Amino acid sequence: MAPAESYARIGTERIYDRGELVYPDVIMIFHPQVITMQKSYTAPFYSGIKENGLVIINTSDDLLAEEDHKRLADINVSVLNHDATKLALEIGKTELSTNMAMLGACAGVTKIVI
Fold first, then answer.
1. In the Cβ-directed half-sphere of 94, how many Cα atoms lie within 13 Å?
2. Which residues pair with 28 in a beta bridge?
3. Is the peptide bond before 44 cis (omega within 30 degrees of 0)?
């Protein structure tokens, strides 16, 4: 697996910024290997996340070290472990639907879609 990073800006007003998001509100980890094998461009993977942010990880397992949990808790970042691949296989019959399950989790938790 080769790591990849993608960025999306979502808002109620027109967005003119382009390029890398250095200080995200939400980080979504689609492949647990980003954490378990440290396959991330930034170390730790949550570097730069804003206070009161959200991390969604595609796994049912708790993959974060105690130190990472403490750092995230110190800035009030919520961590959601969501087995999106399992859900994609159950409902969509293919792991290619994993991205939709991850987006659904994000939309549900953040309430960005009303």
1. 4
2. 56
3. yes
Which of 71, 91, 78, 86 lies closest to 25 in space, CA to CA?
78
Distances (CA, A) of 13 to 17, 109, 110: 12, 21, 17
Q: What is the pLDDT along the chain (114 residues), one digit of tens a residue?
A: 566 788 889 888 999 998 889 999 999 999 998 888 877 777 788 999 999 999 999 999 999 999 999 999 999 999 999 999 999 999 999 999 999 999 999 999 999 876
52, 18, 43, 32: which is closest to 102 by C-alpha?
A: 32
Between CA 49 and CA 59 the distance in angstroms is 20
CA 11, CA 80: separation in Å to the nearest integer? 22
Q: Up-side HSE of residue 23: CA atoms within 13 Å toward CB?
A: 4
Q: Where does residue 25 rank: exposed (0-12), middle (13-18), buried (19+ CB within 10 A)?
A: middle
Side-chain-side CA neighbours of 20 within 13 Å: the count stands at 8
